[in-house]
Amino acid sequence: MTARLFVTLAIVLGVTAVGEFIAPQSWRLYADATQLVVGATAAWICFAAARGRAGLQRRWRVLLGFGLACWALIRLWWLVQDVMLPDRPVTMVSDIGFFVLPAALLFTLLQAPYTRPRPVPTSARRDQLALMIDSVLIAGSLLALVWSVVPRDWFHWSGQPTGLIVAAAGYAIADLVLATMVMLLLLTRPDSRAARKPLALGGLAVIAFGVSDTLRLLHLADGPLSPWQSAGHLLGPALLAVAALSRPADGPPGPAESGEREWLHLLLPYVPVTATGVMIAINSGAGKPLSPFEAYLGWLGLGLVVARQMFTIVDNTVLLDRVSEGQRRLHHQAYHDPLTGLANRALFSDRLTRALGTKPVAVLFADLDDFKLINDSFGHAMGDRVLHAIAERMRNCVGPDDLVARLGGDEFAVLLDHSPAEAEPTGHRILAALREPFVIDGHTVGVGASIGLVVPEPGEAMTADALLRRADAAMYASKRRGKGAMARYAGTNDGGPHADLPHLLAQALASGQPAAAGFEVYYQPIVRFTDGATVAVEALARWTSPVAGPVHPDVFVSVAERTGLVAAIDDFVLEQACTDAAALAIIYGRPIDMHVNVSAARLGQTGLEESVVTALNRTGVPASRLVLEITETKRIQDLAAAAAVVERLRSFGVRIALDDFGSGFNALAQLHSLPVDIVKLDATLTDVDIAPDRAGALCRSVLTICADLNIAVVAEGIETPSRAHALAELGCVVGQGYLFGQPGPLHRLKPPMIPAQPSSPVHLAN
Q1: How far, in Å, CA of 407 to CA of 562, rounded?
Q2: Are residues 573 and 631 in contact, defined by beta-carbon separation less than 8 angstroms?
Q3: Which pairs count as long-range contacts for 102-108, CB under 8 Å and 24+ apart, including other chains?
Q4: What is the residue-wise DSSP string for 549-595?
């Protein structure tokens, strides 16, 4: 289609040009005829090119086609007049109709994608108006400059009516304004080369029209223009047709202007204004007075400069407002949690620091109980919605001057900016509010929380960080008492049940010698049901703090997970267990396997493999005797990466066990993804003596799956002989629990003796 249109245009241009130059007599007749043919053909090409396009690409081609069609119709009217009144003077009122094409070009340029808003966000209409003012300002300045330097004898206007002179001048001035607008768009609106091509062709067309219109203005009294002088009226429509045939740019518009282009956009309109002012000043200094036309142009330029400055002031005001709004938004983002809209840790610490020492304050530290189960069972999207609902309830439980913050994950804190006596009632209101189930998308979700409360003593010098650590310690004390409760910090300088556990744990592990800070390793036997023989032991960390006294493993392990210290505990237990391997072999009469717990979070971190290899090489323990139990205290984010770490550990000869199988919602997913050798059934799946039907069916299913995958099974939570017997009847071979021995230090270990139960043995160790 495009090729055919190009061929048509070329033929028309060739034929009309030949006719233009070989016509012997009537130049006006041939000029009007050829311009009619070219204009009509260009209009037809624009309408044809608009078909199959949509939106802006269609709209500007239709506008061009309409303007060219009107231009051709006026030429047709002139041609009829040439035939009927060959000697008519060029004073026809129909000249005004030629302004339809410049108007169509103006609307086309204003709707072009190059007029998209500049970096200062404004409306499209405001941007278009600024473009028009700049164009008229530059064109007016250039016109004044030319008028002041061009000799008056260049103008052949003698005997011509004023209306004709004004109309002819209007064509040239319109061409100058349009050409200026195209220049501004090309210089100040970057875009792809393909998108700029039709704009450049349109600018060339305007220049072609402008040349012929200017020559006509200068030679009004000389009659019709010569073929060379009227060539612009042929070339202009042709170039517009070529612009309509250009292919649209692919992809989105180019990037916003750079700083260099923005400066050009601001300064360019004032360059010709300055030059014109200098020229007028020179002429005035030489004693040449201003003509009425120059004075009019001067006042017009002044008005346009004032209008342009007003737009610049508006631009600056809008820009400052946008910058201020952006700063406020960035400040809010820096100090607020994006999910819940609550204050974040930075804002909470800042407010707490400013409040300390100036007025009584109290801090509540809340940690959601078992929130991980919500994420695992309903997904993280549901978990986010629950966190948002929790934030709303906590806001409703405090006063307008109190600050509720989300410190991260499922941790929240409240800064009570009133009498400390109101702290405990506020904490209980929060607990009661969170105990109410959340109904989201038809799902009823229950969430509890453990809260720690700390109130600084009057006159006590405290930092915000120390106060938060105390609140954190009180929260863990609440968890030790039982979840869903609140505990008040009651620690003293010499320790106590609510001591600052995160700080104490960090101090205990900072020296690199955990044993000297109260850490030791206990061992619990793993026993074969058939003969009561110990086939392995599980190494477990225990901590007796010199300040806080004995700390429950669930508490200090949880604190270590939250503070990033769990790797130090894991490595200490691994080293000590490998060191005690020889003594364990003496106690049980032969080498036995050692199970060492490793946090699942370490599978995505560096250092685990190096720690294992170092411990085995240092102690000389065979890798086949070491079993690493993956304890999922935190969600394994990348199972594929974790599986790669497990495979490398197994390549050393180390075996992998999946601990507490059945206690999480993604246990089967881990069993499928992680190449494990042993599965340890959680106590919730081994109470077959209490619920033989349901628990027995579940346990039997897991045993079948593991047997098919060639995975050994260890049953945890064995406390009674009846449970051991029931599990043996189901096909479970090995178990662990208080029935066979509680965890104890190395010197208190002894082989357990229980009545043997009939079963086919499956050995976990040779």
Answers
A1: 12
A2: no
A3: 102/67, 102/171, 102/174, 102/175, 102/178, 103/67, 104/63, 104/64, 104/66, 104/67, 104/68, 104/70, 105/64, 105/67, 105/178, 105/202, 105/206, 106/178, 106/181, 107/63, 108/60, 108/63, 108/64, 108/202
A4: EEE-HHHHHHHHHHHT-HHHHHHHHHHHHHHTHHHHHHHHTS--EEE
The whole-angstrom separation of Cα 651 and Cα 315 is 67
Q: Report d(CA 576, CA 553) in Å as an integer.
A: 17
- Please, are residues 458 and 446 in contact by the beta-carbon 8 Å criterion? no
Query: Structure tokens of 217?
Result: 């203005």
DSSP string, 469-503: HHHHHHHHHHHHH-SS-EEE---BTTB-TT--HHH
Band of pLDDT at residue 640, cut at 50, 70 and 90 = confident
224 φ, ψ (degrees, to nearest 5):
-60, 150
482: Cβ–Cβ under 8 A, 6 or more apart, which residues?
Answer: none
Contacts of 547 (CB under 8 A, 6+ apart): 494, 495, 499, 504
State the number of CA atoms in the 13 A half-sphere of 288 facing the CB: 10
Distance in angstroms (rounded) separating the CA atoms of residues 542 and 545: 10
SS (H, E, C) 59-87: HHHHHHHHHHHHHHHHHHHHHHHHHHCCC
Per-residue pLDDT of 429-450, as tens digits, reads 999 999 888 888 888 888 889 9
The structure tokens listed for 616 are: 């085995």
Tens digits of residue pLDDT in 268-287: 666 666 656 666 666 565 56
What is the rounded CA–CA span in Å between residue 622 and residue 765? 12
For residue 255, what are the CA distances in angstroms to 56, 125, 261, 496?
A: 19, 20, 12, 64
Q: Which is it for the CA torsion 194, 196, 202, 205, positive or negative? A: negative
Alpha-carbon span 664 to 378, nearest angstrom: 13
Quote the mean pLDDT of the chain: 78
3-class secondary structure, 7: helix
User: Radius of gyration (Cα) for the chain, nearest Å?
Assistant: 44
Q: How far apart are CA 699 and CA 157, in angstroms?
A: 110
From residue 228, how far is each of 154, 231, 235 by CA, in Å?
18, 5, 11
The Cβ of residue 304 has, within 10 Å, a number of other Cβ atoms equal to 21
- Sign of the Cα torsion 232, 233, 239, 240 reads positive
Q: How many residues does this entry show for the chain? A: 766
d(CA 672, CA 663): 16
Among 397, 411, 406, 410, CA closest to 343: 406
Distance CA 555, CA 499 (A): 12
Measured CA to CA, the distance from residue 345 to residue 423 in angstroms comes to 20
Place of tokens 């009226």: 233
Helices within 336-456 (DSSP H only): 345-355, 371-378, 380-396, 423-435
pLDDT at 595 (0 to 100): 95
Cβ neighbours, 10 Å, residue 407: 21
> What are the tokens at 615?
């411990």
pTM of the prediction? Answer: 0.47
Under a CB-based contact definition with an 8 Å cutoff, are residues 553 and 542 in contact? yes
Contact status, residue 70 vs residue 240, Cβ threshold 8 Å: no
How would you label 451-490 residue by residue, b for 16+ Cβ within 10 Å and e otherwise?
bbbbbbeeeeeeebebbbbbbbbbbbbbbbeeebbbbbbe
